[in-house]
């Protein structure tokens, strides 16, 4: 870390908060959030914690300001802001773009969930847990979501029920594991989580189930939280875990449970999306989206995937991990060298791997890769509201076309400069997506005129989702227990696959450093397990090559979007950088 002692109150607060959310020590005013391993999801957490400390900052500033000193200059005291508008989160919810996407998939609705397993403290009892879960249900409106599915195929109807309408006692189950070694719990946790999944009934307002594995009064257990995906996403898990920790602190002290306020309800957000779908700003993006969705990109096998033929299955998925020695650099050194985000780096490695994979099969097409990307969706571009404490399914899904050009990529395996060039090209292509793609779903699902055109365009057969960075320490109560996963989707039986290959990646912080975990799922009517594993291995190989390249002299550099004089070409920028290095 660069360091530099913070002087002002804003600097001291933000340096400490960044140290807390990233789990590092000694953050100084010269340190940068991204260079320390921060990403957009952690930036959302930082915004929420800063607000609690009385400061307003934005996710955009967190990700773009060069260091803590510059970020502190953007912070404003909350007492200088106007009072927030009253926000009633109870009542009708507009079906959001990602919910429309889910509806179009078909298959079973009730069992589509995410789950996470959290470490529970000794001294927890079932009555205490019920009171804590009740606090979650009453505080977060979306956890009282009720879904109505008309039989005639019409649009869904959603509403959030009043606080108190859902009884936590009916949502909590206790399983006795006292006397059983923890290494024997995994099968039971998976089995009981599946049973809990099958108890979900969104049509009745039942979208959350909690299964506590009680190891006895003097021993720590685990809690499996199973939440219907309509009510939760990756960032939501961090909010729920923090709230459980806060609720436990109150319970231990014999105090009433009081959770931090939620400035903006999910219901309000859903209405904002509906309004934004018809704005000129959104409609102006249509030509760009249609261009990205043009035909011709590399295809996945000769058979065309038949919707509904392949269903989600644990039997057709595997998880691979990149060791900490490489992941640490991917999170810090590589993004810092290229002034890029972790997504840019991961996608550059993926674009290189996809190119090799397609060339080996003769399916390269026009040399580009058409992907769906998932984003957290809580973008400030749509409205200047605080969503850092809002639980719900905010995910945005949008297409991107990655093009590495015609350059010779033969030295990528030899850790040549071309891997760095791939980062630069992909970074510019990602930045070329307006406001992180958040309006694509509005045009596709909430505007009938633009939606018809986008529905007829070519559709990606590959989806990539980086879930962010998770702290997973077995020493911390209410932390995610990494071996059970990090809030990945679980569908139950019969859910049709939406893509030929799906990748969900996350970074899990362990005591020996961060580890990148990627779960791959494939449609075996289109690609085989061997083909999928070959692509997965190729991706990790390219990421290791990027780490090795970052150690070479002169690695990294700026791209046109980094500069005010953006008319400069990439070649011209690199010539200037080369001349400067000569001095």
UniProtKB/TrEMBL annotation:
PANTHER family: ENZYME, PUTATIVE (JCVI)-RELATED, PTHR45398. Gene3D superfamilies: ACP-like (1.10.1200.10), Chloramphenicol acetyltransferase-like domain (3.30.559.10), Nonribosomal peptide synthetase, condensation domain (3.30.559.30). PROSITE patterns: CARRIER, PHOSPHOPANTETHEINE. It comes from [Kitasatospora] papulosa. It comes from the Bacteria. InterPro entries: ACP-like_sf (IPR036736), CAT-like_dom_sf (IPR023213), Condensation_dom (IPR001242), NRPS_synth (IPR010060), PP-bd_ACP (IPR009081), Ppantetheine_attach_site (IPR006162). Residues 5-79 form the Carrier domain. It holds the Pfam family Condensation. Its cofactor is pantetheine 4'-phosphate. The keyword Phosphoprotein applies. This is Condensation domain-containing protein. Keywords: Phosphopantetheine, Phosphoprotein. SUPFAM superfamilies: ACP-like, CoA-dependent acyltransferases. The keyword Signal does not apply.
């Amino acid at each position: 870390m660069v360091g530099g002692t913070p002087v002002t109150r804003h600097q001291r607060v933000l340096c400490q908060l960044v140290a807390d959310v990233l789990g590092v020590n000694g953050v100084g005013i010269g340190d940068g959030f991204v260079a320390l391993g921060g990403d957009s999801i952690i930036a959302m957490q930082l915004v929420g914690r800063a607000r609690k400390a009385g400061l307003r900052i934005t996710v955009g500033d967190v990700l773009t300001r060069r260091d803590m000193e510059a970020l502190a200059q953007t912070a404003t005291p909350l007492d200088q802001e106007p009072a927030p508008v009253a926000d009633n989160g109870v009542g009708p919810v507009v079906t959001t773009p990602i919910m429309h996407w889910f509806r179009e998939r078909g298959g079973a609705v009730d069992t589509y969930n995410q789950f996470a397993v959290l470490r529970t403290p000794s001294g927890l009892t079932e009555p205490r847990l019920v009171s804590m879960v009740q606090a979650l249900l009453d505080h977060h409106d979306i956890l009282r979501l009720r879904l109505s599915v008309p039989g005639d195929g019409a649009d869904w109807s959603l509403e959030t029920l009043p606080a108190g309408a859902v009884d936590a006692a009916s949502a909590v189950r206790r399983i006795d594991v006292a006397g059983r070694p923890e290494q024997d719990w995994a099968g039971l946790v998976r089995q009981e989580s599946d049973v809990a999944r099958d108890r979900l009934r969104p049509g009745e307002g039942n979208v959350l189930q909690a299964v506590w594995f009680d190891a006895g009064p003097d021993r720590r257990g685990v809690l499996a939280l199973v939440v219907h995906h309509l009510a939760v996403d990756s960032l939501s898990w961090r909010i729920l875990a923090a709230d459980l920790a806060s609720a436990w602190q109150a319970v231990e002290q014999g105090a009433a449970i009081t959770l931090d306020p939620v400035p903006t309800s999910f219901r309000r957000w859903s209405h904002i999306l509906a309004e934004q779908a018809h704005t000129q700003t959104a409609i102006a993006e249509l030509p760009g989206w249609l261009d990205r969705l043009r035909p011709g990109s590399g295809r996945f096998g000769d058979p065309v995937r038949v919707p509904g033929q392949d269903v989600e299955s644990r039997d057709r998925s595997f998880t691979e991990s990149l060791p900490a020695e490489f992941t640490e650099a991917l999170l810090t050194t590589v993004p810092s060298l290229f002034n890029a985000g972790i997504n840019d780096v991961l996608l550059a490695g993926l674009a290189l791997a996809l190119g090799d994979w397609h060339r080996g099969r003769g399916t390269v097409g026009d040399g580009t890769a058409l992907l769906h990307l998932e984003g957290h969706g809580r973008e400030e571009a749509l409205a200047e509201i605080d969503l850092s404490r809002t639980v719900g399914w905010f995910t945005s899904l949008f297409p991107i076309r990655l093009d590495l050009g015609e350059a010779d990529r033969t030295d990528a395996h030899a850790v040549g400069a071309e891997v760095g060039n791939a980062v630069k090209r992909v970074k510019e292509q990602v930045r070329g997506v307006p406001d992180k793609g958040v309006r694509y779903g509005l045009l596709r699902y909430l505007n009938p005129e633009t939606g018809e055109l986008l529905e007829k365009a070519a559709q990606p057969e590959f989806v990539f989702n980086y879930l962010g960075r998770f702290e997973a320490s077995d020493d911390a109560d209410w932390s995610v227990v990494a071996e059970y996963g990090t809030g990945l989707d679980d569908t139950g039986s019969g859910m049709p696959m939406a893509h030929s290959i799906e990748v969900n990646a996350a970074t899990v912080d362990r005591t020996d450093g961060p580890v990148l975990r990627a779960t791959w799922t494939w449609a075996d009517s289109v690609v085989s397990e061997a083909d999928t594993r070959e692509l997965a291995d190729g991706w990790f190989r390219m990421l290791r090559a990027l780490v090795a390249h970052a150690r070479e002299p002169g690695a990294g550099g700026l791209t046109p979007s980094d500069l005010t004089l953006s008319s400069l070409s990439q070649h011209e920028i690199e010539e200037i950088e080369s001349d400067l290095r000569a001095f």
